[in-house]
Known about the structure:
Blueprint: H1 10-17, H2 21-28, H3 36-49, H4 55-62, E1 67-72, H5 76-79, H6 83-98, E2 102-107, H7 111-122, E3 128-132, H8 140-147, E4 151-154, E5 169-172, H9 174-187, E6 193-196, H10 203-215, E7 224-225, H11 231-244, E8 250-253, H12 256-268, E9 278-283, H13 286-289, E10 297-300, H14 303-322, E11 331-334, E12 337-339
Parallel strand pairs: 1-2, 1-3, 3-4, 4-5, 5-11, 6-7, 6-8, 8-9, 9-10
Antiparallel strand pairs: 10-12
Helix pairs in contact: 1-2, 1-3, 2-3, 6-14, 7-8, 9-10, 11-12
Amino acid sequence: MTETAPRPTLEAVAARAGVSRATASRVVNGGDGVREPLVERVRRAVDELGYVPNQAARSLVTKRHDAVAVVVAEPETRVFADPFFALQLRGISKELTALDNQLVLLLTEGQGDHARVGRYLAGGHVDGALVFSLHLDDPLPGLIRRAGVPTVFGGRPGWSDGDGGDVVYVDSDNRGGARDAVRHLVGLGRTRVAHITGPLDQTSAADRLDGYRDVMADADPRLVVPGDFTPAGGERAMRELLDHCPDVDAVFAANDLTAAGALRVLRECGRRVPEDVAVIGFDDMLPVAEQTDPPLTTVRQDIEEMGRLMARLLLRGLDRHNTGEEPPQSGVVLPTTLVRRASA
């Protein structure tokens, strides 16, 4: 059995740098009041010895854990099957990694998981939380408030409309993007424009439905069919549309996965796209939008940038809190762009 070499100690770093242990500790833990030449000597000693600071000791000094919880209010089967979540997590991870913070991923499958997440956040394991894909009846916002954890939300929180409390969130212009998509379809001369929604207990889906209605205020109610942001949901909705409204000549789908499912059904039923039925999605997730047949016209939102911005806002807010400044309470809404491909 190979013996493991002892880990370098802070005392060894101090000795190598020729400084006191207290000075080495201040440098390693980000403290002030050390002259730059000494800082460089300590950092060089850390590199040469391969010293890794004790996180518990470091937290006592900095009052930070350098860890952020990312809470996705969806089951793991949904999270790992939908590229939207991969893109948002990639943006969050890039931002946290650049600032030497750890990402702790928490998923919710049911009520028991909500309680578990609430206990974890209240336990002081992380500096803050990034939360997205919330549903309107989700207990997480209340649990997070009780935990007292600084939080940035992905997507406009539905509960902020009525309780008078301000929250920090990052969202895309879902309503405006939907309007652009539907106006494009109308501009193509389409008169029977349908909408396959996302789950309407999420504000992104509700906002996209509102954008559709802004343009199609007098549309046949049967042209609006519920979906769930999945390809299977798009297939079910498209079959329902063809059964009830066989003269449909355009579809605005609430996301790209829904649009992909709708395109499969149209192809199976012998409907040509875009000649017979034009189709537009929402997200512009390239693994989906460029691989559909035909390639998908869609509304682009910068999903990865949304993740990066969420992390950036949280970390900036933590810095302000540690210096006694109050973090700004506001939402950031990023613009969307219609990307034209062959489907419409």
